[in-house]
Amino acid sequence: xxxxxxxxxxxxxxxxxxxxxxxxxxxxxxxxxxxxxxxxxxxxxxxxxxxxxxxxxxxxxxxxxxxxxxxxxxxxxxxxxxxxxxxxxxxxxxxxxxxxxxxxxxxxxxxxxxxxxxxxxxxxxxxxxxxxxxxxxxxxxxxxxxxxxxxxxxxxxxxxxxxxxxxxxxxxxxxxxxxxxxxxxxxxxxxxxxxxxxxxxxxxxxxxxxxxxxxxxxxxxxxxxxxxxxxxxxxxxxxxxxxxxxxxxxxxxxxxxxxxxxxxxxxxxxxxxxxxxxxxxxxxxxxxxxxxxxxxxxxxxxxxxxxxxxxxxxxxxxxxxxxxxxxxxxxxxxxxxxxxxxxxxxxxxxxxxxxxxxxxxxxxxxxxxxxxxxxxxxxxxxxxxxxxxxxxxx
Length: 394
Known about the structure:
Largest sheet: 9 strands, mixed
Pfam family, one: Ala_racemase_N
GO biological process, one term: D-serine catabolic process
Number of strands: 17
Structural class: alpha/beta
GO molecular function: D-serine ammonia-lyase activity
Number of helices: 12
Shape: globular
Strand content: 15-25%
Protein name: Amino acid deaminase/aldolase
């Protein structure tokens, strides 16, 4: 029995469009992440999952501890739902209402750490809460980009704190401010974690691999020095680093106490191009065939689920099952229809399903209210995504 037949059989009583998560693939991916982490705990990146039932599933597995959320409001919601009592918010917040909710809840304050990288972030918290607010847990973000020469920046644009001296200076500023407690340091190496080294032309792959080796070596030296500089100011509870694509190099850094990962649980198309690991596709969505404009083309309903990031072919969903299908270059995946062509298109009939993969891990959950959790040839249960729980965190 082919995989396509298994998914079709499992969802035969459901009308597409629909989304499934293959639990066997999800669990296998979790095992692979844990193996790659080599004993260091993994903090689960919620934006790559965006489904509370799946987050609870992975947090119940050995080797996974706590969440990394992308918004403060999301973190507070998880505390209220009892998902976990250990959350780091990966991005600074300007949400005054969420800050007031954080300050008003002793449980939330004990569970949640917010991200800061400048005195302006501390000023914003004071402006939202007043200068006599309860103690707020904060994490200092160190910029993890690679800057081999003046004016060259390789990586994501995040914190202005780059050097150990800058980290120490800011740590002193945090410690001197009443109402704040510095408990952690985070450094996200996007140029390693989020960039595949096994896709594209041979020369391009070689350049990326060379850059990542050099960047990892530089970061490990600089991050170690920065952490030691901060620890000279105040004790730290954790040092977080990495992402799905950099688990090995991040884990090799002795100062890192935990690794962030999430996309590796889902296995989207953007994570097909890595030499270090091969995740199994766990989240799929099915679209029905609604037209046959020619013998070689089948048109699917809906499907324009384009991923965030730089516009291009890598952000477009890709046909997965049945094999042998591809999008049309001049039309692509559309808001209301998605034509596919290829050898398999000739045998598709009206009402047949085509299974596709999203380019990014968590954004599919913004398109569907529910995930059908498939185990073998049956739906074990159906669970709401964030959207299905009426939660939208921007």
